[in-house]
């Protein structure tokens, strides 16, 4: 969609307000407390930056200086995550940005695979990752505190749109042989998965 803007709604005040006002395309807004992030097209290019808006101060900050295709940012606390393409848009990496230090790091492995739909809660990041050689996706979990990555889903299946809250991870998973998707719940502490 062209010339889309980002809006917010204050539930307590019952008021809607505009965050952006420009002719650039914007996608995938996410919010945590008084911080809002989104992907914004760079003027004149088919590239997207990750932008941050502070509701308290009214200031907007561009988090990504170099040009690249980025989308689906998410935010929790002092961390922002997003997916970013490399190798002519065939491979996605997951990036983590620290708002306190201004440092950016790639938290997914350097393998030649596609990754999508990052989500963050606390010090945990999840995403869907294509299994090499197959049109199937696993759900991956990255622990910011330890730097360790864990594959949560052992069997092959088409999975997408993971989300996380506390020790719960959810995602959509396609039934084998059917174009029907179910919702799954995984508990990190007990390492148990179930169809919900």
Question: How would you describe this protein?
Answer:
This protein has strands spanning 7-10, 15-18, 26-32, 35-41, 48-54, 59-62, 70-76, 79-86, 91-98, 104-106, 115-121, 124-130, 137-143, 148-151, 159-165, 168-174, 181-187, 192-195. Strands 3-4-5-6 form a four-stranded antiparallel beta sheet, with no helix packed on it. A four-stranded antiparallel beta sheet has the order 7-8-9-10, with no helix packed on it. The protein is mainly β and 196 residues long. The model has no long low-confidence stretch (mean pLDDT 90). The protein is built from no helices and 18 strands. 0% of the residues lie in helices and 56% in strands.
Radius of gyration from the alpha-carbon trace, in angstroms:
17 Å
Return the structural class: mainly beta
Biggest sheet character? 4 strands, antiparallel
Could you name the ranges where pLDDT drops below 50 across 5 or more consecutive residues? none
Question: Overall mean pLDDT score?
Answer: 90
Number of helices: 0
Helix content, binned percent: under 10%
Strand order of the largest sheet: 3-4-5-6
Strand content: over 45%
Shape: globular
Give the CA-CA distance, first to last residue: 33 Å
Number of strands: 18
Order of helices and strands: EEEEEEEEEEEEEEEEEE
